[in-house]
Amino acid sequence: MISLETASTELLPFVKLGVTRGTERLAYISGARWDIHIVSIDVGSSERFRSILARDKREYSGACFSTPGERYLVMFSEENGKTLVRSYAQDRLGQRASSAAFERSSLTEIANIIVGGLSGELADRQGMGRILSAPTMVVGRKSDIYAQAFGDLSSFGNELMVDALIHISSPSLACECTLMLRLDSVTTNFLLRSDPDVLQS
């Protein structure tokens, strides 16, 4: 069974590496620096993260991605989402956001870029590729989006799930977002027992 101590000491370091990869990509497409403020791990119970998310009463847009054994969720407040889409459209596409559909599509692509860094780090760690699902977009409060994306499941049988909560922001854009990751026990154990140097040799 996975302990919080094991997940924190062994899993957290390469989750941080994956988040760094994601923020580097986000910096490229937004034209602004992004800082990582929180990378926290929890095992089994989802109540601690749920209570943290419940403190924020604003409306958010959430993009949920999945692949077997893994789920990813990126959440932007309405204001932050619009700021990011404007930056994305003007700096990368050379145009202005022209419709709600364009904003939604751009925000999905931005979320995909953020998640791609973390997913890529896990793929490298395991020595295998992965294909993420098309994103599901959800609108609501953070805690509600979390419940819809991850559900109430914290364990399967005697095996515990592992959640990661990440908060990033850009000072120059006055913009922030929340990224969450859920791993099942099979994927977590594989990650913890895999030596990337051996896998790549």
Please, could you describe this protein's structure?
The strands form two sheets. Strands 1-7-8-3-2-4 form a six-stranded antiparallel β-sheet, with helices on both faces. The chain starts with a helix and ends with a helix. It is globular and about 45 Å long. 50% of the residues lie in helices and 26% in strands. It has 201 residues and is α+β, with helices and mostly antiparallel strands. The protein has one domain (4-196): CheC-like (Chemotaxis protein chec).
Compute the number of structural domains.
Answer: 1
Largest sheet descriptor? 6 strands, antiparallel
The CATH class turns out to be: Alpha Beta
Indicate the overall shape: globular
Kindly state the percentage of residues in helix.
40-55%
β-strand amount: 25-35%
Helices, by number, come to: 7
Task: Tell me the total number of β-strands.
Answer: 8
Architecture (CATH level 2) name: 3-Layer(aba) Sandwich
SS content category: alpha+beta
Alpha-carbon Rg, integer = 17 Å
Contiguous runs where pLDDT drops below 50 for at least 5 residues = 195-201
Order of helix and strand elements from N to C terminus: HEHEEHHEHEEEEHH
User: Within the largest sheet, what's the order of strands?
Assistant: 1-7-8-3-2-4
CATH homologous superfamily caption:
CheC-like
How far apart, in Å, are the first and last alpha carbons?
29 Å
The overall pLDDT, averaged over residues, is 83
CATH names the topology as Chemotaxis protein chec
